[in-house]
Write a structure and sequence with these properties.
The protein has 15 helices and 17 strands. The strands form 4 sheets. The chain has a 7-stranded parallel beta sheet, with helices on both faces. Strands 14-13-12-15-16-17 form a 6-stranded parallel beta sheet, sandwiched between helices. It has 417 residues and is α/β, with parallel strands linked by helices.
């Protein structure tokens, strides 16, 4: 795939977007979804989150299922469902998994074992689990062994880091880490979204069966050309005001306390800016009370979300629990310089000092210093915004999805290195 170069002049911001090198995708010949024996590949996806909540895991897995089905692969998605709530217009055929609301986080669901009759009737050639520390993950391991098919996993979430936000004792964190380490070691391959995350897992001494599986961005949807002065005005933002934007689910693990600290410090220092938060979640009221001058839009999707990104000026994302950071890449594609936590997810996206800055995790003063620098230097914002957009164009969805399909095929045919 090759992205054509073009010029954009939006609200007085002239941008030259260069063409990245052409990306080549290699398949084994014939129809992509066929195995070497000419039969259609059958893939079972097992996930604790797929369509009832809109998060990075659900969006990535839906992209995967969409790609697989277009390639002619038969797919079944084994996942919990919430009949009262569907946040994602999902792809593929879902097989519901028994579940209950997760205690303390009712927006998520605690999943139980796989429906054995359904998965055995499907006869998958390979099982891909988006691993969560629940009975669904353990039963998937047992099922893969019973059926004698390869089990692969994708690494989406640093669960052991999440626990500290919910008052879980260190002993449980260690037990969880040991369980996940043991589980990943039993998988044929583990797909990790960034090289920096792979490096951290290796340093932790995990079995090295990691394969880099990057994410992509829709650079046509998330585009600086979608900037809207009329939309900004509808929110009470004047043309000359500089907007500091945050996009995320409003949950503790996204470091909302650090975000509030940034806004509070900038205001105390007398730096002119407007703060804008896009997203919703159980911590929204807390954040609204801590940041009374901030504009909250709630959850936005599609073109509305793309317009919000492009109508901002600086993107800030203090979360240090990301394995990738889809929102950061979307902000970069929208032409925004990004100030993110110097943690594995962001380190593989943000080029420090070129497309934005990497701040000390959980240090509101560090973030504030970088954001203030961008607020006070429009030329720097402009240069970094151009560089961020250009870097985002190298992240295509089609290449990593086709790579994964080829990995499946090699494992099923027994030719994986």
């Amino acid at each position: 795939m090759q992205v054509a170069s073009y010029n954009v002049d939006v609200e007085g911001r002239s941008r030259i977007l260069k063409t990245p090198k052409a990306l080549k995708v290699f398949t084994f010949g014939g129809e992509p979804g066929l195995l070497s024996n000419g039969r259609r590949m059958r893939v079972a996806i097992v996930a604790s989150s797929y369509n009832y909540i809109r998060d990075g895991v659900a969006l990535t897995l839906n992209r995967l299922v969409e790609h697989l089905e277009k390639a002619g692969v038969e797919v079944r998605v084994f996942t919990p469902v919430n009949k009262k709530r569907q946040a994602v217009q999902h792809y593929g055929q879902i097989v519901p998994v028994p579940s209950i609301p997760l205690p303390g986080r009712s927006d998520y669901r605690l999943a139980f074992g796989l429906p054995q009759a359904e998965i055995e009737a499907f006869k998958p050639d390979i099982i891909h689990v988006a691993l969560a520390p629940d009975w669904l993950g353990y039963s998937t391991l047992r099922t893969a062994r019973k059926l004698g098919v390869p089990l692969v996993a994708s690494y989406h979430t640093c669960y052991e880091k999440y626990l500290e936000y919910y008052g879980v004792a260190n002993i449980f964190t260690r037990l969880l880490k040991n369980y996940l380490s043991s589980y990943y070691a039993t998988c044929k391959e583990v797909y990790v979204p960034t090289q920096s995350m792979i490096d951290e897992l290796r340093q932790d001494g995990l079995h090295d069966n990691f394969i880099l599986w990057q994410r992509g961005v829709d650079a046509d949807l998330f585009n600086p050309a979608r900037r809207s002065q009329a939309w900004r005005q509808s929110l009470g933002i004047a043309p000359a005001e500089v907007v500091v934007l945050f996009v995320s689910r409003l949950v503790r693990e996204k470091q909302l306390a650090t975000l509030a600290g940034i806004f509070t410090r900038l205001k105390a220092q007398g730096v002119p800016f407007r703060s804008l938060v896009v997203g919703d979640g159980p911590e929204r009221q807390m954040l609204e009370e801590a940041c009374p001058d901030t504009i909250f839009t709630g959850t936005l999707q599609g073109e509305e979300l793309a317009r919000a990104y492009a109508s901002g000026d600086i993107f800030v994302f203090p979360s240090d629990t990301e394995t990738f950071g889809n929102v950061t890449l979307e902000a970069m594609a929208s032409g925004l310089p990004c100030v993110c936590a110097s943690a594995p997810g962001s380190q593989s996206l943000v080029v420090d000092g070129e497309t934005g800055f990497l701040a000390t995790p959980r240090d509101a003063d560090s973030f504030t210093g970088y954001v203030r620098r961008l607020l006070e230097d429009p030329d720097l914002r402009h240069r970094m915004g151009i560089a961020a957009r250009e870097r985002s164009l190298s992240f295509s969805w089609s290449v990593p999805m086709e790579m994964l399909l080829n990995r499946y095929r090699k494992l099923i045919d027994g030719t994986a290195a």
